[in-house]
């Protein structure tokens, strides 16, 4: 049997339900997906750090965010010490799921070989999985 990942933040279902809105819980803890083009960070250009909405762990930097026009925030790089990648065979597809390495919450998926970035990767992340922490002195657009 495979080892269960060990997370720094572990909560019961009831604790997650009380800490998150129903929509946040659905995406973060049940691996749901928000509707395309509805998330608060899809088009933002604010300079800062994107953290996990569930636990506050730093995940992405605004410098790595790009306009993919796919309907969700997209990043072309992430420190893999911050996320865990898992095979996802849901919905009749084989994809790579992205989870927060600190709490195990679902963030989105990573796609390779689309030729959209120099690294040839697109981390397609649900806005509702993130909380943007603007850089000090930055509140506006870059």
Helical segment tally? 2
Main pleated sheet: 6 strands, antiparallel
Rounded mean pLDDT is 89
- Strand order in the largest sheet: 3-4-8-7-6-5
Strand content: 25-35%
Sum this structure up briefly.
It catalyses: L-methionyl-[protein] + [thioredoxin]-disulfide + H2O = L-methionyl-(R)-S-oxide-[protein] + [thioredoxin]-dithiol. The protein is mainly beta and 142 residues long. It contains 2 helices and 9 strands, in the order ααβββββββββ.
Question: Can you put this structure into words, describing what you see?
Answer:
The protein has one domain (13-134): Metal Binding Protein, Guanine Nucleotide Exchange Factor, Chain A. 11% of the residues lie in helices and 30% in strands. The protein contains two helices and nine strands; from the N terminus they run ααβββββββββ. The strands form two sheets. A six-stranded antiparallel beta sheet has the order 3-4-8-7-6-5. A three-stranded antiparallel beta sheet has the order 2-1-9, with no helix packed on it. It is an enzyme of class 1 (oxidoreductase). Its EC number is 1.8.4.12. InterPro entries: Met_Sox_Rdtase_MsrB, Met_Sox_Rdtase_MsrB_dom, Mss4-like_sf.
